[in-house]
Amino acid sequence: MVELLLAKEMTGVRFPLAAPTYGAGPEGRLAQRNMYFIYVLLSKKDGNFYTGYSRDPWERLECHNSGKVDATKYRVPFEMIYLEGFVNQQDATSREKFFKTGWGRTHLNKILKNYFNSTA
Hints:
By secondary structure, this protein is of the alpha+beta class. It has one domain (12-119): GIY-YIG endonuclease. It is 34% helix and 22% strand. The protein has a four-stranded antiparallel beta sheet. A hairpin with a 5-residue loop joins β2 (36-43) and β3. The longest helix is centred in the last third of the chain and has 11 residues, at 89-99. The N and C termini lie far apart (29 Å). The relative contact order is 0.19.
C-alpha cells in the first residue's frame, strides 16, 4: 500500500511505480483523487522517453499501450519508469514542462542513472 504523508509546503511526492492498492472500486482511489501526476514512460520500441500529466497515470499508461494516444501510438509498448505526484495542478504542469526541456531530460537521466545501469 502506498502511504502519503503530505505537508502544506511539500508539493512534490515520489511514489513507487506499482499501481496503488487502495482497495477495489472508485472509492479505493480516494487518496489519488486530489493528486496530479507527471509520469515518464520509456518506449520499449525506440528507447525514447515520453513525459505526460494525468490524474490517473496507471489508466493513462493503459491508454498509451493500447494505441489510443496519437502522439505515442507508433511507439508502443511503454513502461512507466518515473512518477511524481503533486497536490497543486500548476506545480505538476510546471514539472512536466521542465522534464520536456534539455535540462529536464538531463536531470531525469541523473535521477534514473541506477535504473539504466541495472537494465543495461
